[in-house]
Amino acid sequence: MSGIKAKVGLLSLVLLAAGGQWASVASAAEEHPQPEGRPHGAARAAASPGGPVAGRPAFDGRGQVLDPRYNHGRYYPPMGTVRPSLPGEYRPYYRGSDRFYFSAGVWYAPQGPGFIVVRPPAGLVISVLPPFYSTVWIGGNPYYYADNVYYTWQPDQNGYEVVDPPANADEPSPAPESPQGGADDPIVYPKNGQTKDQQAADQFECHSWAKNQTGFDPTQSGGGVAGDPNRSRANYNRAMSACLQGRGYQVN
């Protein structure tokens, strides 16, 4: 009889322990619910240039997906997500008869009574980059990256164009050294804590803009212009300085 009681007691302890473990699992599931519509295989953060973002889960609490490419490290709704209304502070863009809406780095298009998260077509030009983006140098040119979309600066349009992913997107290069200034070059200091990558990109873009405005190109012999190269150079320097100062740099 005592043997039977011992077995019953042991069985009760096993069931109690199992029940405690199940309660723990259930509690964890309530605290971190599985998002609906999760794409197949998305729980594995894809290996990418720069490596995955250490210690970051593949999804946040709202079912948004981590973008680890180039250590971007931001969360976005998966492509194909449909929402009933647009988020606040969106900007509309048009491509022919197609409409797109841009908000916080995410692109939407109308679908039925709602809006679907999409990848924008190449050629759209925006005046301001997403609030969070990564600067990546590929083939000697700066690209701006966010949520699987690449942008490049277009000085003739004074904006950033959506472009197709570059062919060698998986082979980014280090940012070039920012020039310290020669006899005719201004010396540039970041005032707002800009990174080396960002300073190099800003100087590249300001050079492109100043060259487009003045016709003078300091990388060409004689600036590539006819007439007085000194005057053209002075005009270029003024345009370059104004552009950099507008982006938060001290120019001496």
In short:
With 252 residues, the protein is α+β, with helices and mostly antiparallel strands. The chain has 3 helices and 14 strands.
Task: Describe the protein's topology.
Blueprint: H1 2-31, E1 65-67, E2 74-76, E3 82-83, E4 91-95, E5 98-103, E6 106-111, E7 114-118, E8 125-126, E9 134-138, E10 141-146, E11 149-154, E12 159-163, E13 188-190, H2 196-214, H3 229-246, E14 249-251
Antiparallel strand pairs: 1-2, 3-7, 4-5, 5-6, 6-7, 8-12, 9-10, 10-11, 11-12, 13-14
Helix pairs in contact: 2-3
Written account of the structure:
This protein is an alpha+beta fold. It has a domain at 188-251. The chain has helices at 2-31, 196-214, 229-246, and strands at residues 65-67, 74-76, 82-83, 91-95, 98-103, 106-111, 114-118, 125-126, 134-138, 141-146, 149-154, 159-163, 188-190, 249-251. Strands 3-7-6-5-4 form a five-stranded antiparallel β-sheet, with no helix packed on it. It has a five-stranded antiparallel β-sheet with strand order 8-12-11-10-9, covered by helices on one side. Strands 1-2 form a two-stranded antiparallel sheet. Helix 2 crosses helix 3. The chain starts with a helix and ends with a strand.
